[in-house]
Every structure is written in structure tokens, then in C-alpha cells.
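Internal ticket - ligand job 543, zinc ion:
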Amino acid sequence: MKKLSKKTIIVVIAIISIIVISLIGTVLYLSLSKDVLVFKLNGNDKMTLEVYSEYEELGVTATLNDEDISSEVTIDNSNIDINKLGTYQVTYILKHDEEEIKLTREVEVVDSTSPTITLNGASEVTVKKGTTYQELGCSAVDNYDEKVKDKIQIINNVNTSLPGLYEVKYVVSDESGNTATLVRTVVVVENNTQNTNIKDIVLDSMESNEIKSMKFTNDGIYVDGYIKDNNGTFKVILCDDKEKCTIYGMTKMGDYNFFGNIKLTGLNNGSYTVYVESNNKEKAINKQEMQHRIVRAKVGDKLVSFSYDNNNIKLKIEDFAYQYDIVIDPGHGGSDPGALNQYIDEKNINLIQSKYEKQRYEEHGLKVLLLREDLTYGTVMGDSSWPAVRRKAYAIGYYGAVSRFSYSNHHNSSDDKSLMGWEIIVPANSDISYLSHIYQIRDAWSNLYPTTENHVRLYTRNYNTSVIFTKENEEKYSFTDYYAVIRLPQELYNVNHVLFEGAYLSNLSDYDWYYNKDNWKKLSEEKIKAYVTALGIDYKEPE
Ligand SMILES: [Zn+2]
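stdout (C-alpha cells):
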């Protein structure tokens, strides 16, 4: 045999190598080209559906080597009852290679619609002092819970022996915890008057030395009184401890009534007794309930305080000094929860926010008073049988009188679940010098808030007509304010009080954005920035 040349051996090895490599490649190719099966749910494996809505089958994606085999899938959604709350399972079974592959989807049928409350009778009721308030109740219907009408809760603190504004609250929750609230305003008026305005309530028993009502003005007080035993001229006299007296002539109205202004700005510091004089000089009395009396106010550069000893009116004048920079009223409290949703009460959220703001102001070196520190009415407002709104107004006025600013924190609620956004409510006659920091807050909140709804607004409201007026520009109105916690501090204490309504608790997406996502802190920071700046301090970001 001919000896194989070196060249031939190399060629043979090369050929063998090519064959081996090709074989390995084929085996690899065969092992990699196994069937590709895809079997998955379209949409999520958990679905939530509103009761009485429609279940739409989203199906599955099933492919074998990119070829649609979804017709081989058996879908069973027959147990879903969209008219009944519950959790249901949908199964998807694919038979492939003698094997059964199963997927499931959970479908929860829920009720997230709140009941609807309708009042029997009017939403504002006037009753005379000493008579009985007749509760007409309300009706409630729910889209699902048929027994909801048996679950109505009526919160009623009307005291017909005490004139004032009261609220009767109707609260109902369906079995899924969706809550609705509605309020009826009850005005208890004195027996002898048709007028429902608290400031005009006149008391029955006139005495000949009576000052019926007093009101702070820019430089003193306005009084309005009654003298039975008269000679046709009327005077009010202020006498200090040393019986040094100042006489003020009053204007006669009818046979027995008088009115007039008493200028206090020229008087020396000290204590004064108030007299009325016509035929005789007698100590003046004021028989109104404490909650209707004026107590103290900043008048010029003086602090003027009234006290009522045995109905006799005493007056004290001293140099004015601020005791607080800001008084914050965390809205509602005690038995009054304010607005509600299934997660939180307004009195709670108002308190959380007010405490946060207080701490932030204190980080700026400011002195802040909270009108309540917990969910009760707290010690500042004291123990009192006064209606809630009166007690609030009294505390706001009393402490606001010695504070540079005061405001209430509130949150909105409405039967219209689509409403969302913030509101700021200011006194009707407040002017630009008082409001410039409020405009700053308005602008910042408008930028932050994720809505352009018409409830993003700054306004005031007329007591008599209930009509809302914008305060977007520098409008100044002379009408009486609608909200008692604005109206009464101004009438009784010269205090400009502001209400902040942060969000609608009744709108769950508004609540979620505002509260769960902590955006309320951003809104609070804008408020803090504006107030500390108005007080002449540089704003510091939170740490
Ligand atoms: Zn409120």
C-alpha cells in the first residue's frame, strides 16, 4: 500500500472534524426547537366589580409556537353573580400533551356606592325658645343594602332652652361601610322675635337700666339699651375707681330705647363701672347669656375687657400686647365628628393637620395656641352647655383677640361625590392688608392641586341670603357673614377669622390624593410659608 502522505492525513482530519461539528450542531438544534407554549390571563388575576355592573370576560392568551390555540381553552365563569356581593373564581383550562393546565382569576363584586339621605321637612328649622323641637327624621336608600333605612343615626344636641344655632346630623352607613351624612340647621330663637339672626336676639324682660347689646367698633363700643324711668334724655356713664366719670350722650329711639357710640381710645388704663342715666344714675346691667356677651377686643392700642358680675357690666382698659402669633382651631371635636368617610372623621384629620402646623410654626419660633389638643373639646374651651358652634366662636374670639392671626382647619363633604378641591372662606369685610398672605396660599394651592374644579376657590358667604361671593380680588362686602365661627368672633371680638377646607372627604379619590399620599403636608407647608412670612420671619423647609 502506498504510504499516506502528511497532506492527505490533514485533509481527512479536517473532513472528520466538519462531520462531528455538524452532528453536534444538529443535536443542539433539535434540543432547542422544543415547542413553545404560552398560556396566561388577559388582564389581572384579581378583579373588582361594582354590584349590578357587567362582567366582561377578558379571556386568556394561549399560543403554541406562536400559533393561537385559545379555542382549546375551556372557560368557566358561570358562578359569578354580579347582583350579589362576594368573591368568585373564574377557571381557564387548557389541555395540551395529555396534560391539563389550569389558571384562575378572582372576581370580587363590591358595593362602593354611598346611601342617599333625604330629609323629612326643611333643611333649616326655626323653633322658639322653650318649645319642643320636633324631629321629623329622614329617609335613606341604598343601591344594595335594603335595610339601610334601619341604620340611620341621628345626632341631635338641640337645646331649646338656649337660643342659638344647632345642627342635627343624620349619618347612615350601608353594610359595606359606605357612609352618607346630612345636616339640618335648627335655630332656637327668643319667643318674642321672628328674627333668626343671633346678634339681633332681644331678651324679654326689660329693666330700666339695661344695656341690651354691645358691639366693638374701631375706637370703642356701640351700645343699645332701654330706660323705663326716663326724662327724655339718655346717657351712658363710665366711672373709674376714684369715681372720676366720663359721660356719653345717647340717641333716643321711641319712648324707652336708646343707642350710641362710646369712644374708649382716650380713656386711661384702669377699671370702670358702667352706668345708665336718665332720671336716676343706675348701674347698667346686661342680661344676655354669657355666650352672647362681648368679652374682650383690641381697640386701638388698648385691650378692652368686659366682665359681668351679677349682670352688672364692668370694664377694664389696659395696654394691648399680643399673647399668641397664631390661634388654630382644629374644626369640630367632642360629639361633633364633622364630615366623615369610611376611613376617617373630619375632627380627627383636622387635629392631625393642626398639630403638624403648630409644631412647624414653633420651629420658626412662633407662639401658637391650639383650641383643642385631642378629640374632645379640650380644656381651652372649657366645660360648657353651649352649642358647639357658639363655644367655638367664643374660644376663637377670646383667644383670637390677643393673637395676630387665627384660623380653623376643616375638610369638606358633599352628597355630590364628584366634588373635589379646596376652599378658603374669609370674612366679608376683610381687606387686602389682611388678606395678602391668603392670596399667596390660594396661588400656591391652585398650583399644587390636581384639579381645576370650581371648588378650588376663595370666597365669603352672605348670612341672610346664603349666596356665595368671590374674594378672588379685593372685594369688600358689608353683609353679615354666613359662617358662625367667622361672624361671631368679628361681631363680638373684632377678630378676622379664616376657614381652610383642605379637601373633600366624601370624594375618595380627593381624600386619597390629599391624605393617603400625604399631599396635605404640602398644602400645610404653603400655609406655614405664607403666615411666617406675614409675621416677618424667614420660612424654613421641614427637615
Ligand atoms: Zn368642618
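Auto-summary: The chain is about 20% helix and 35% strand. The helical segments are 6-32, 346-363, 378-381, 388-400, 432-448, 484-493, 508-516, 519-534.
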